[in-house]
Design a protein that fits this description.
With about 500 residues, this protein is an alpha+beta fold. The chain has 9 helices and 24 strands. A hairpin with a 2-residue loop joins strand 16 and strand 17.
Length: about 500
């Protein structure tokens, strides 16, 4: 690379907002949580530049191996034996915003800001892996500390002219429905969108550009002099070019919206009380509810000011939908391939020894300790090709208006009498007329007709009320009905 290669480039500062919680993890936990988000020197969440570069590099590869895709190699560099080239795309770390909607410095920031203190504390997401019988799999219970939804970050991106790639073409990816960053993107985490972007082209062979470049603040948190960078109309530039020309970057993902309406009560259990009032007992005393729906707070932005939401939002997390759909796809995959349980006496205890290929095609696969990389770390399995987002529901000013209380008691299996101390209550969501709108994206570029049929049948079961979501489906919670509206042709239709 010569000096001339560095003289002509495009530069932009981009502000993004997380539409769902974010987890770019660090190695190990802290003794309290199994997974933590990456932080800067202030203990505040941040996004490494390599994470941003990684999602852009894979998107540019158009579903192929980014290490071999020629366009990707030219833009992001490569190494092949003794030959190679450095990246022509440079991306800084993304710095989090405080309540004044400005990025803070990597060092020296204080947490007396309401938004910063909230983001530093994080939000807890609990998970459990279920086996074929619908119960916890061998102690696979874990929690994650995630960055709450609504967090804003600013980063800087520079694209050299030799990349052969316009800057706005890279920004296209960040506003797509399927774009997500960090861990858990297939179960609803890490979805983001561009809030604003400013930039310009530089040609340092020109004196006027050199003057601006010399005085341009290096640190992202420092204010820009007026007129140095111009607003980029990124949303217009994200549209396909006029005149019927094909998009420069292929769309391997097909996006749509899953619209569902609960037919009654539904319940996805939470572990942190969202501030629900105590409920009266029959003897007149008050007690805290034993079970309540999942809810989270988030950051809101209005008029250049950020605030922590006054109330929580009820959640139908994408992980609940993904788990149910994965098991139902496994059922339909075996039905379509006529893999039935044996009809002899061994059938009550029969279970498949491995996941069906259709299931792993759509929802990915984790690899175990027997498949380690050169550093002794567990290799990552192939990612899934179905991407879902959380469904968020505004909480009523009085949360009790959204809930229906059920009282339960555990019975002795022999006498059928109540067991002492086993009386508990359960609060389920009950909002008549509610419509949940859940973004969904599917990558089907290599799917067979049978694989499409298995996923289509599982989604049909969900939309027609045969696949109940959340906890206590056997007690009547979680029946949903609805439809899917794709942005284009149905990617799962028969071809």
């Amino acid at each position: 690379m010569s000096l001339a290669d560095q003289l002509r480039f495009e530069l932009a500062r981009v502000t993004i907002e997380t539409r769902s919680p974010l987890l770019i993890g660090v190695e190990g936990g802290d003794g309290f949580h199994d997974a933590l988000f990456t932080t800067d020197a202030n203990g505040l969440p941040t996004i490494p530049g390599e994470s941003l570069a990684g999602i852009l590099r894979h998107a540019l590869a158009e579903g192929r191996d980014p290490s071999t895709a020629e366009r990707c190699k030219k833009a992001f560099g490569y190494q092949d034996g003794d030959t190679g080239d450095s990246s022509a795309v440079e991306i800084s770390w993304a710095q989090v915003h405080g309540s004044d909607d400005r990025p803070v410095a990597f060092r020296g920031a204080t947490l007396d800001d309401e938004v910063l203190a909230f983001l530093a504390a994080g939000a807890i997401r609990d998970h459990v892996r279920l086996d074929m019988n619908g119960v916890a799999y061998e102690g696979a219970k874990f929690d994650e500390l995630v960055v709450p939804a609504g967090a804003r970050f600013t980063f800087e991106i520079r694209v050299l002219e030799r990349a052969g790639l316009p800057l706005h073409e890279l920004l296209r990816f960040l506003d797509r429905p399927e774009t997500a960053i960090g861990r858990g993107s297939r179960r609803g985490l890490g979805h983001l969108a561009i809030v604003r972007a400013v930039g310009r082209k530089f040609d340092l062979t020109r004196p006027e550009d050199r003057k601006i470049w010399e005085t341009l603040p290096v640190a992202v948190h420092l204010p820009l002099p007026r007129g140095y960078l111009e607003p980029l109309d990124h949303r217009d530039k994200l549209q396909p070019p006029a005149g019927g020309a094909p998009e420069p970057i292929a769309r391997q993902w097909h996006s749509g919206v899953l619209e569902l309406s609960p037919m009654g009560t539904w319940y996805v259990g939470g572990t942190i009380d969202p501030g629900l009032p105590d409920r009266p007992r029959k003897d007149g005393t008050l007690k805290t509810s034993d079970r309540f729906p999942m809810a989270e707070r988030f950051v809101t932005w209005e008029g250049g000011q950020g605030r922590v939401s006054a109330r929580h939002r009820w959640l139908l997390p994408a992980s609940s939908l993904k788990g149910a759909l994965r098991h139902r796809v496994a059922f339909h995959a075996r039905r379509l391939s006529r893999q039935f349980a044996p009809g002899d006496a061994s059938s009550p205890g029969w279970a498949p020894e491995a996941s069906h290929p259709f299931e792993t095609y759509w929802f990915g696969q984790a690899r175990g300790d027997d498949e380690l990389d050169a550093w002794g770390r567990e290799r990552q399995g192939p990612p899934g090709r179905v991407m879902l987002s959380d469904a968020c529901i505004d909480m009523a000013e009085s949360p009790d208006k959204d809930l229906h209380a059920f009282e339960h008691v555990s019975l002795d299996r022999f006498t059928q009498g109540p067991i002492d101390g086993r009386l508990f209550d359960e609060l389920a969501l009950n909002k008549p007329g509610l419509k949940l709108k859940i973004p969904i994206a599917v990558a089907d570029s290599s799917a067979t007709p049978e694989e499409r049929a298995a996923l289509a049948a599982a989604l049909q079961d969900l939309c027609e009320g045969r696949l109940w979501i959340g906890a206590a489906g056997s007690r009547g919670h979680g029946e949903l009905r609805g439809s899917i509206k794709w942005d284009g042709p149905d990617p799962l239709a028969r071809r």
